[in-house]
Protein 1
Amino acid sequence: MSTDQDLLADGRLTDGLLAHPYAVYDRLRDSAPVHRVTGPDGSPAWLVTRYDDVREALANPLLSLDKRHALPGGYKGFALPPALDANLLNMDPPDHTRIRRLVGRAFTTRRVEQLRAPIRRTADHLLDALGVHGDTDLIAAYAAPLPITVICDLLGVPDGHRRDFRAWTDVLVAPDPARPQAAKEAVVAMLGFFTQLLAAKRKEPADDLLSDLIAVRDESGSTGNGRVGSDRAGSDRLSEDELMSLAFLILFAGYENTVQLIGTAVLALLQHPDQLAALRADPSRLPAAVEEFVRYDGPALLAIRRFPREDVTIGDVTVPAGETVLLSLAAANRDPRRFPDADRFDLGRDATGHLALGHGIHYCLGAPLARLETEIALAALLERLPDLKLDGDPGDLRWRPSLRARGLLALPVTY
């Protein structure tokens, strides 16, 4: 066990971790398998950094996501009202199994593939707005509006609310210490938004995922068009809090993870012109390249916190029941024991087995959609903007001040 107080200071992230997370994680991973650290809110936690330990812990049923297994005073993550907190990120089986079965059919690789044409149309529309040459912030103009449009279309969220949702999400992921009330205000606004949206969908159902989920809730598990549904009427129904929390999670994660992934993928290519040239020469490599993008600089530094149901040994450390365990996906994906020369960005490597999207029963539900959106976003960029370049010094790029989401605040480019 090791203590590393410069990982976090006074409950807040240090500049070193934000600006150079992989250098910090390399040092931690090399020094010990598990570290005693201070959580984002100032409470104690245990940080796991090595690939084998992280992978095993992700699938360990003794490590619970349910906050009821947490000791008082430990780090628990987001503080959300019950109507938004009853989601898959806080659940173990059997509730996790039940809810994931209800919605999982909407995110299979086969069903997601049916979205390829609409996603490409959205990408082309956004690139049309940029014109054939100029300069822009690629996050604001492209990487952010693409996934929010896709996930809102899938759920059936009206156009007029999409900008608000992006703003609320940004506040929750990276709270501003100068505005301590902003996160609470965002939660209140989101709760009101989902309450009104569910009421509108109940009144006028449509051909969208949210209408299907409402049918699961209100009609004993039957659905109108078969995208989601239950195998057993009654026992698989959603509670009202579960319904609202599920809608929140799909919209939140469907936007947040993909915008970060697209941004860091483009940055990696612009910083490695040889890799960019190889991909331009053979765009058919894009699906495999996405795996290296998520391994090399994925959208989450850490997995969702976990709480041991009983004392658990990780590496050479016994973590007491109820204490908080943080699993570093970023450190695991740069572990040279699993990926040789792991700090090198290489689109030719076999990146399968990375943990950026999780492992085990909590593997990212929206992984097929995130992969497809990233593939299409990059394919459109390579085709439409052949002279894309980074505008300015890479050292001037600003990253989100967040342990939850690894992402750029802006990506200035010329084209």
Note: The chain has a mean pLDDT of 88.
Protein 2
Amino acid sequence: MTEAKITELLPLPDDWRRALAVVAHPDDLEYGCSAAVAAWTDAGREVAYVLASRGEAGIDTLDPARCGPVREREQRASAAVVGVDTVEFLDHRDGVIEYGPALRRDIAAAIRRHRPELVITLNHRDTWGGVVWNTPDHVAVGRATLDAAADAGNRWIFPELAEQGLEPWNGVRWVAVAGSSAPTHAVDATPGLERAMRSLLEHRTYLEALTEQEPEAYVRDFLTETTTATGKRFGGRPAVSFELFGR
């Protein structure tokens, strides 16, 4: 028997205080998710960002040695727009991030450091839906984050973390996957949408290389279109969707 397709998205649980977002690259969180982040920080919740790479291979016309610092700087500015002060980089190599114990250990360590109740990551599935292929970095980091949420609570997986003073953390209640092709929940984007646009615009160097469209128009068109489409399954309000996994 096939599972019934969810047509209406449920509200994401909001009975939590701390969240940790773990993604592969600068700008991954800004393609929609940051509208939810802005609303959360407005409500007094703590949100921290951890990025597996510095996005140094993301701009064809910019050498990685120069690109990495630029994209890091833009990511920190972008996070600040939506009220996020803590942005950490794990320094895995952009474009060839590998799923495996090393990545799981680094993410588990971050979860133990920050002790979130909610962990957020980006689409870990092969596609964005249909035939639009996902990148290996997104798949690796998304899968590793789902696994690391459990690893963080197990004393006997990566015991060296406890030796470094990072005691197990079993407090992760949910992992919310943004950009999933199988969303189950959503957050109203209305309160944070304008700041989400400004947040994405902080990645100006990347955007100018990505599209010939004016960055302001590109950002407004993209985020308006995606949040409006999601909102059709969330009471007609612009929304950010997530696939929610409980623990």
Note: The mean pLDDT is 95.
Protein 3
Amino acid sequence: MHVPDGFIDAPVSVAAGVVAAGAVAVSLRGARRELDERTAPLAGLVAAFIFAVQMLNFPVAAGTSGHLLGGALAAILVGPYTGVLCVSVVLLMQGVLFADGGLTALGVNITDMAVVTTVVAYAIFRTIVKLAPHRRRTVTVASFVAALISVPAAAIAFTAIYALGGTADVSIGKVFTAMVGVHVLIGIGEAAITALTVGAVVAVRPDLVYGARGVTARPLEIRDSPLAPAAPGAVARAEAPAAEPATAESTTAEPTTAEPTMATSRTPEPVAAPRRSARHVWWAGLAAALLCAGVVSFYASASPDGLEKVAHDKGIDQKAEDHAAKDSPLADYGVKDISDARISGGLAGVIGVGATLAVGSGVFIVVRRRRATAESGRV
């Protein structure tokens, strides 16, 4: 759904750019509350993973394909504010390095693919999680539904933007019908990818899934401490209900009042769960991203995606302009001067994953440090 240059006129493109800039600014502030020392590196990985999976176009109808948008996945894994930033970083890398999505249309793409999908998906996700039983399965089901609805929501948003600033004289009703129709099908693929990914992370490390906090947490473990002071009434319970007549054995026995009192004290102590490293999850996610971008992407569908298909059928693409980065050595997801398509595409994908990971991780680490600085200043 990457909008190229020329589809939207200058005034609306500028307005969308202002909206996108405002959303990114708000998200930078909001992400400070979502990121901690473990999730900051993971947020960069989420951006790189979304970049990689977006290369995997899947067929949805005759002559049409679709790909992950990623707003729902990012919002559920790392939070809605951080999710907006993740998708925005992906769109920036795609536009600058790979000539995918117009540079003058970057504001339109961020507003549509980063803001709309993330806001809609997370609102639906939280609604389902609040109403449904608090189980791990609920997180997966909510992820599926949220991702499914977020894609046609983005298609509706594009139609609204096109109605305001479209450069081609086409029927908005036909554009709406075509866009929503094909993106409902694409939403099924988005939902499957999102649910599988979220479900996999929840299964091994639910504490790393932002949307699962408070849903999959285990009950607090209570243990009895043998060294704890006696609880009120414990001594009374330890004493015999009535004194027995003294005998020779009883007069020579050692006093035993202290030990029963200690043994019967049951003061509960909360035991905090040990903090575990997210290193294994990070490496597994990076390996999956590199595999998708470097190998699996070669087998992706070559059919145009939903927006490209609708634009061609309705004549919108007649107004498309050449991309400012068309001469980039990585344009069209291939390395310039490498003739072998597999090697060219795979290497471009690996470079894209690395660049997105570096930029995304840098942004989120800086945001995290600003939060730490602000907290230390308050102290």
Note: The beta strands are 58-61, 64-66, 222-224, 268-270.
Protein 4
Amino acid sequence: MDVSDPATPAPSPSSPSAAAEAAGSGSVPLPALSIAYSPCPNDTFVFDAWAHDRVPGAAAPRVTFADIDVTNGMAERGELDVLKVSYAELPWVLDRYTLLPCGGALGRGCGPLVLTHPGSSGTPSPAGLSGKRVAVPSERSTAYLLFRLWAADEVPGGVGEIVVLPFHEIMPAVRDGAVDAGLVIHEARFTYQNYGLHCLADMGEHWERTTGLPIPLGAIIAKRELGAETLGALAATVRASVRAAWQDPSVSRPYVLAHAQEMDPAVADQHIALYVNEFTENLGEDGYAAVRGLLDRAAEVGLVPQLPAGALDFP
């Protein structure tokens, strides 16, 4: 396997150097924190520099790799200092955690897909999913929340049984007929044809068409009890780690490929290019609008609790 060709770095706006921002004029040094994120290429790419003690002024974190359904549960139990979770999970954890304005996955053209097997009967269109068995990566994943908003518009009477599976098990389950359809995320966008599957619908396309907003997927959260100074140093460290990865993608290459579910370097490159973008470095006005839009829309139809005012503000 050739791992020498680095992913194309995303453009980074003019800003202080990664080291300078991480050190932060007058900011506190970042202690060793506990963090959990997925083994997917976007997360390992983003956190490589920090995880390997290459961000000045920040101690390397204690890393746990876990699927999103697991990290969502960790957040609900308050188990770690920093977590990658679903944006859909925020209404249940923002009393204890705060949303970081960087490090997550949000963008355009990167939404979850609903996959079916071309040989299955009764599912040639979204309406054909009525009463069917659908596998999803987590009942509190953003993918599933987007799916529920889509199904309310497109699937008369709604789907049938929802089965939660680790995301890497979903495509085989659809292929083998264990479920009628599967909701997939991450690199499955680039590999589902290898399983002989058909893309029935793109949740991100539906979201962008009906709202005009980018698609919020995964968020980085940190415990509020860390305090404003440490949280500020954490955000600066995450941004520095992102910029370091963009500056020289070849450095993160071994870490990315060692943990990727899909080991094809070309697929890892596509994954990183799609999910690590300007919103990863800074959510910005459009990013926050997307997050508020998703959670407000879901709350209006009773899918999640309503967020209190100021819940998304970063200290």
Note: DSSP finds 13 helices and eleven strands in the chain.
